[in-house]
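Hey Z.,

So I finally got round to the NAP thing we talked about over coffee. Here's the setup:
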Amino acid sequence: MAKHKILIIGFGTVGQGFYELFHEKQVSIGLEDTVVSEVIDAKFGFIKNFGPDIITQLKGGKTFEKADVFKTIRNSEADIVCEFTWVNIKDGEPAFSHIEEALSAGKHVITTNKGPIALRYERLHELAAESKLKLRFKGTVMSGTPSFNILELLPGIHVQKVRGIFNGTSNFILTEMAHGKSFDEVLRLAQSMGYAEADPTLDVDGFDAALKAVIFSKVIGWTKHDLNSMDIKGIRDISSSDASAGVKLLASMDSESASVKPVHLSPDDLFSNINGVMNAAEITTDTLGKIFVAGPGAGRKETAQAVLSDLVEVINN
Ligand SMILES: NC(=O)c1ccc[n+]([C@@H]2O[C@H](COP(=O)([O-])OP(=O)(O)OC[C@H]3O[C@@H](n4cnc5c(N)ncnc54)[C@H](OP(=O)(O)O)[C@@H]3O)[C@@H](O)[C@H]2O)c1
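And the result:
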């Protein structure tokens, strides 16, 4: 009998990436008695009692009967729900309701979905706390690269300020523009390489980075920041000469204010060396001064690592 069971909602890049990484690492992280017992996905349907070759079967075109997601959550034997559906920056739905339903049904939740965490964190945090359940969302900021979660290693530390390059697509565009290419040319390149969506608004207009800045702030306790109150500006007006002069799209937050905007950096600023799709965060603290972390901010395996980190925390702590 498995000790822990996982229900995955949304079986795309992150869901499948997590499924694969979990099985690759399960023994080395001591989770032999944990299983992914159910999967529900808009495209593939509801999948239960499946074998390790499920992803190969789905790639081969196999689909399963559709089911209602909310009923599935309520009836599930799983004690952990992983929410990996699409991001909605207007109201966080349907992910918010999926997470609310899971917590109300007594299940821990792990999500990589920025919408519900950035927009409705307080309600979800309160619901989890009331029910003594865990709500983890490491993958929402810098994928598996440590970001706000390193604060868990630093008891008592006081964070004074955070700066970050939180959007790999816009950083990639600025890096390429610094070599003389135009915004439109590099955007097409980013789309052809799969870094940018057909509708690049979230990335290039600063909203994706802003959602991450809000989430980072909420973890620290700077609860007043949200998309409406933040100063948000993207990179559409940046020229290649601005980019080659060291302009980066930077998030900046402290207890009073938060912004995402293009900033001209001096060459000795560590962020000026963060190129391509890399992400980075600088956390200014009372005891350690500045802590700087850099690494991938998206990707199948990279985001799966974030979910694995959250899973170990949910199960072991
Ligand atoms: N990919 C990354 O590198 C990355 C990194 C960090 C965070 N994230 C976040 O993680 C989440 C998942 O990303 P992803 O890249 O895995 O997206 P994805 O490849 O598009 O996968 C999402 C899956 O969820 C399904 N889905 C959509 N609405 C659903 C619903 N109501 N009920 C059940 N299934 C539903 C989709 O089916 P259809 O295709 O039929 O809609 C799709 O199979 C997003 O919120 C994303 O922002 C992604």
